[in-house]
């Protein structure tokens, strides 16, 4: 914006130096002869605020700043520069005839392309016919005036004063219009912000419960009863959130909620395997650790399950909080909005109910609400009762999977795996029934039975086949290790079976209850001191971290099968796996790879110096009898045969 105190910039465009000198003399003393201009100023150039003449006799209120160009091209460069520097010219005096370059008309056109607000005075000695030609070319324009040569200095001053003042006032008005528009936009945004704040969670900046209920009301009211469900509500909360708040503090809890919010938004934005965006979704925080994902306009109801699976998987990945990795996990309840849903609250309650069904069926699950959900609750209670009876009657089976030394091709150990068959005849996965056994508080009873039975069977096998160097790996829950009496129970079991404690390897998952970490560490240290080996199971899955090498007295780390499966096809997994092997060796720990199923995986592991492996390439889990046959003749195993051939070939070379 131009004020009275700022110089009014004038550009003189003429090829003759004499003309430039004349303009310098005209504007050299701006106080001179001000009285001559007083009447003109009073009539035409009054200030906006006090309606007084801009010029006052005896006062110097206006200063002109002249620049000079001897061609149209040079004038264009100066105007460009003035726009870049935000110091535009008010008036340009342009000579009509400037050989050999652009004439006055061409120069004016070029200058207006750069600065459309520039006022131009064309100085010409041509006849009136020439002026008509100029108007035909440039059009009638209030930014264009004609000054015929020769002209008086007062004429130039009057034109400069009038046009520069017109330019100043126009700039002021333009700034006011701009400021007014900006104020209108500011107020509009402020209103939008207030509306948004009322419907947005202060911590995560996600939409909140009032927003969700309003949105659900609109959806329920607009639901087309003749079509299949097009919308779904996914309800979830976090596992172990209170533990994190209690142990790491509320700041860490807030950090976790923000990270969860970001991951949920990622899950909704992802696409399905066909590359098709499978839903339009929105993430909402209800409060505490409860979140809702609202999916609208589903092309297929199955898409809601895809998103739920994606959420469970993503939230199960470790979070970095307060300088450590923390696992929380989640369960998801899914409720479709159909013609049986009467209002928003019912839609939300249905999803909440489904979430609790998912949580009760095992952490990290998702479930779909239906009207027969109470039947599922009854079925869960029945499963719990069956598990209680099974633990009481020891109605479980043990299988054994060989662990093969990758250097010698010999079976160096076995891992015991517990199996359970429900009354219906269905074989229930340990991933399903072990967490339920833990939740029921029966894991110590089951775990002690597994230890005793496995030691008993292995003792018999080793005597029968005259084997004395095959170790027994037993998975032990962290709930067992947190029991102060675990070591006493284990010692009695070892003594009853006469089992060599140096051949017993306790396999534990690194993730667990942080509140029991000190007791678990004490137990592991005492186990190590007694001669029992400690192995970290499922490394690379869940909360596994390199800190286990420092925290626990481990002798081996078992790379999880989900990690091993991709080492032959995923370069990044291969690099990480190789680094883990090397790091473990530097820290005097062995590496066992789980889930080895192909020759390519085996070759990569051998090349990296992995110590041992287990998986279907060597053998599936075996009964005691089948294990005895394999121990007697290891060459029954395809993987063992591969290793033996590789060993012979290496020896020959």
Features:
single chain; 653 residues; alpha/beta; Rossmann fold; Alpha-Beta Plaits; TIM Barrel; 3 domains; 8-stranded mixed β-barrel; 5-stranded parallel sheet; 23 helices; 21 strands; 48% helix; 18% strand
| Structural domains: how many | 3
| CATH topology call of the largest domain | TIM Barrel
Annotated CATH homologous superfamily of the largest domain: EAL domain
Architecture of the largest domain, CATH level 2?
A: Alpha-Beta Barrel
The overall pLDDT, averaged over residues, is 85
User: What structural class results from the helix and strand content?
Assistant: alpha/beta
Globally, the shape reads: elongated
Q: Write down the CATH class of the largest domain.
A: Alpha Beta
Rg of Cα set: 43 Å
Helix count, DSSP H or I runs of 4 or more residues: 23
Number of strands: 21
Beta-strand percentage? Answer: 15-25%
Please give the order of strands in the largest beta sheet. 13-14-16-17-18-19-20-21
How much helical structure, as a percent, in the residues? 40-55%
Stretches where pLDDT is under 50 for at least 5 consecutive residues are: 40-60, 271-279
Description:
- The protein is of the alpha/beta class and 653 residues long.
- It has three domains: 8-176, Rossmann fold (3-Layer(aba) Sandwich); 209-371, Alpha-Beta Plaits, CATH 3.30.70.270; 399-652, TIM Barrel.
- 48% of the residues lie in helices and 18% in strands.
- It is elongated.
- The termini are far apart.
- The model is unreliable at 40-60 and 271-279 (pLDDT under 50).
